[in-house]
From TrEMBL:
Molecular function terms from GO: diaminobutyrate-2-oxoglutarate transaminase activity; diaminobutyrate-pyruvate transaminase activity; pyridoxal phosphate binding
Record Pfam families: Aminotran_3
EC number: 2.6.1.76
Keyword Membrane: no
Protein name per Swiss-Prot or TrEMBL: Diaminobutyrate--2-oxoglutarate transaminase
Keywords, in A-Z order: Aminotransferase, Pyridoxal phosphate, Transferase
Protein's GO biological process: ectoine biosynthetic process
Cofactor: pyridoxal 5'-phosphate
InterPro entries registered for this protein in UniProt: Aminotrans_3 (IPR005814), Aminotrans_3_PPA_site (IPR049704), Dat (IPR004637), Ectoine_EctB (IPR012773), PyrdxlP-dep_Trfase (IPR015424), PyrdxlP-dep_Trfase_major (IPR015421), PyrdxlP-dep_Trfase_small (IPR015422)
Pathway: Amine and polyamine biosynthesis; ectoine biosynthesis; L-ectoine from L-aspartate 4-semialdehyde: step 1/3
Family: Belongs to the class-III pyridoxal-phosphate-dependent aminotransferase family.
SUPFAM superfamilies found in the cross-reference section: PLP-dependent transferases
Length: 429
């Protein structure tokens, strides 16, 4: 018996004509999920025809606390209703003061992180650009080490440290001053991939310019849910320290509790020199980003790196409330880790039933890897027809990635995974 109701398959033609006639061909998510979404609450989306979808995508990680979270909505509505300031560049506002004080009190101080906070433009790519620029300014060096299958954003600097060849080709100019190194387990354990970097760095014949920084994701979200082991991250941090290279952890997707702790690098016990955050930092899906760095690295001169949308006060209001609601104790992180283990166990069980399928991920960023590259896309499509939104990742789109809101109940997680299991069974031979 089917555990889900199969929706009549929707196609691109089901979208309003204006998408075809006016919106650029570059559009993508409305192609994967060709329906008009109307309302959303928690882990559920409802389209204009009343079809409900369990959201295992969560705004690509921007909705860790779910859609329209009531705890955050109330202060946001109160703020707007009272004509408090909305746009303020980087002027001082009460909302910004509260955010900075709360972030310092609940996130930085308890972790012993003596970071300064920069507000770049409101996207992940903005934060990465600020991080790369600062690393170059501090060190006076230009080259950056990045990793195979990395994803850091679509602006030219961020793209230059991104692996995906299709995305890189979009730049239209040479992407320079970056050198890719093998990420953990790139050679499937056959070679100690990390040592390649150390070797060329130490070899006067290695041909590597002394880099300003290394930029790394602890789990590569877009790159196929590749997980770096804690030992690998520790060795990387140690090498950076020994060789006077700045370590940038891009926590845009894996930060804000996605892997359990607030920062994804906490588990490895490393302290990056620079950290990028965006996506779920506002907690409500409102655009906001931070670039954090060790106090001594704060060599910016006033206004040297600016931008119009660095002070979106409604985002400060929801970000502050999200920190107070979920990060005043370890309870939320513990719960996320427990949910992550549950999801992983269930994915392992699905993988065992199908040849060529394997489970991968960390915390609440989990997924299934398929042997045939078209299979992951077909599974996502089958899941959409059954009422679950999830997307693919990896260089060949070979991984089904599950990023449910961290607030999803275990019952809803199970419901979505049941549908995933059914979609896999319906897709694979
Ligand atoms: N870094 C990482 C690790 C990301 O996953 C992303 C977005 N998927 C970005 C940077 C870029 O963020 P944005 O799309 O907000 O520019």
């Amino acid at each position: 018996m089917s555990i889900s109701e199969l929706n009549p398959p929707l196609t691109d033609a089901d979208l309003p004509e204006v998408y075809h006639s006016v919106e650029s061909e570059v559009r993508s998510y409305c192609r994967s999920w060709p329906t008009t979404m109307a309302v959303a609450q928690g882990s559920w989306l409802t389209d204009v025809d009343g079809r409900r979808y369990l959201d295992f995508f969560a705004g690509a990680g921007a909705l860790n606390y779910g859609h329209n979270n009531p705890a955050l909505k109330k202060p946001l509505l109160d703020y707007l209703a009272s004509d408090m300031i909305v746009h303020s560049l980087d002027m001082a506002t009460a909302a910004k003061t509260n955010f900075l004080e709360t972030f310092e009190r609940l996130i930085l101080r308890p972790r012993g992180l003596d970071y300064k906070v920069q507000f770049p433009g409101p996207t992940g790519a903005n934060s990465v650009e600020a991080a790369l620029k600062l690393a170059r300014k501090v060190t006076g060096r230009e080259s950056i080490i990045n990793f195979t299958n990395a994803f850091h954003g679509m602006t030219l600097g961020a793209l230059s440290v991104t692996g995906n060849s299709m995305k890189r080709a979009g730049a239209g100019i040479p992407l320079v001053h970056s050198t890719p190194m093998p990420y953990d387990n790139y050679f499937g354990g056959a070679t100690e991939d990390f040592h390649w970097f150390e070797r060329v760095l130490d070899d006067s014949g290695g041909g590597l310019n002394h880099p300003a920084a290394v930029i790394v994701e602890t789990v590569q979200g877009e790159g196929g849910l590749n997980v770096a082991r804690a030992e690998w991250l520790q060795a990387l941090a140690e090498l950076c320290r020994r060789r006077d290279i700045l370590l940038i952890v891009d926590d845009v997707q894996m930060g804000c509790g996605r892997t359990g702790r607030f920062f994804s690098f906490e588990e490895a016990g490393i302290v990056p020199d620079i950290v990028t955050l965006s996506k779920s930092i506002s907690g409500y899906g409102l655009p906001m980003a931070l670039t954090l760095f060790r106090r001594e690295l704060d060599v910016w001169t006033p206004g040297e790196h600016n931008g119009t949308f660095r002070g979106h006060n409604p985002a400060f209001v929801t970000a502050t409330k999200a920190l107070e609601t979920y990060w005043a104790s370890d309870a939320f992180a513990n719960e996320t880790e427990a949910k992550g283990r549950h999801v992983r166990d269930r994915l392992e069980a699905i993988a065992q039933n199908h040849e060529g399928v394997s489970a991968r991920g960390r915390g609440m960023a989990q997924g299934l890897k398929f042997a045939e590259t078209s299979q992951a896309g077909e599974v996502c499509r089958a899941a959409f027809d059954r009422g679950v939104t999830m997307e693919t990742s990896g260089p060949r789109d070979e991984v089904v990635k599950l990023l449910p809101p961290l607030t999803t109940t275990v019952e809803d997680l199970d419901k979505g995974i049941d549908i995933l299991a059914e979609s896999v069974a319906a897709t694979l031979p």
